[in-house]
What does this fold into?
Amino acid sequence: MTASAESAERTPLEDRLISLIRANGPITVADYMSDALGHPHDGYYMARAPIGAEGDFTTAPEISQIFGELIGLWLLQTWTDMGAPGEFNLVELGPGRGVLMADVLRAAALRREFLDAAHLVLVETSGRLRHEQQTRLRGQSVKPTWADEFGEIPPGPLLIVANEFFDCLPIRQFERTANGWRERMVGLNDAGDSLAFTHHPTPPPPEIDLPPPGDTEVGAIIEICEPATELARAIAARLVEHGGHALIIDYGHYGAGAGDSLQAVRAHAYWPVLSAPGAADMTAHVNFEAIAKAAIEGGASAWPPLAQGAFLHRLGLAARLERLCAGKSAEAREALITGAHRISAPDEMGEVFKAMCISAPSLPPPPGFETP
Ligand code: SAH
It folds into this structure.
């Protein structure tokens, strides 16, 4: 699409935000991201069918069945190591089209008792995606229930999986300007007819943890994801009380921040973040260190992230690939090998995506997270 076609496209959400900002002033990047993704009528996840080859972006479980199958085996092992509780909540945060869970349940069918013990809870806000999940999981012996948020999950031991979920939680951005730190805001351009970045006029409140301005260069950006740390704290509290693990896989970093990582993607290509909100996916890198810190403060253990490729290899990717390829046509083998490569090779998704785990404090490291 050309630049003029881009700017000519106006989404209903964009019009609504422009009127709102005209009346009340700029909004935070978090409020913008939250509306762009989750607005009840015009948010991206509500209004579109985003995921897969025909959608705007694809994810590891959509690329290779091995991803979900290995996670299914991981869940079986962690459940066994927890003493195989006769009832537990199997929770997926942001299940997309339900592909990961379908692969998990197929692999986990190796142990009938696991499926019998599982209460499957899918945490999903999008009605459209809930419908897809329901269709895909129809016929499974485990019947899913849905929750709008993590807090609704009933008591009991927990095994939680979240793939590419934390990256869509809204971030706030703070920029080191010539006058010190200022929150980056979404306001209007000079003509007042389109969205443009601006700064909050006054310094952020002291409870926002930012380095001394003297230690950073003008233009530096720090991102804070409050919903991610709140969720990590809530997960930790539940794991401390009831036992279990939370496996979190996402695009992100541990330690030094990524600067401005807010990005939009449409039709598998980058898209300007302030153009046509609601029509493009929007994500930010996950700060695994902040999640680990919040979980540890909440009394849980946090096993540091390792690269997705390394994690999948530790879980037996090569052996699973070999088994799947046995007896297949050359074409089917090629597709399986290509998929496995895309999810695990360092120059594909293997290195930038990371897996980390939050666990109840008394539990040994789950499979893949043992120190070698
Ligand atoms: N895990 C899937 C999909 C990732 S896309 C996969 O790997 O393919 C992100 C998913 O999270 C979508 O299902 C989206 O609707 C859901 N989602 C985004 N924000 C959410 C929120 N705040 N609460 C619940 N679900 C959310």
Remarks:
- Residues 38, 45, 51, 59, 61-62, 94-96, 100, 123-126, 129, 163-165, 168 surround S-adenosyl-L-homocysteine (CB under 6 Å).
- The longest helix spans residues 65-81.
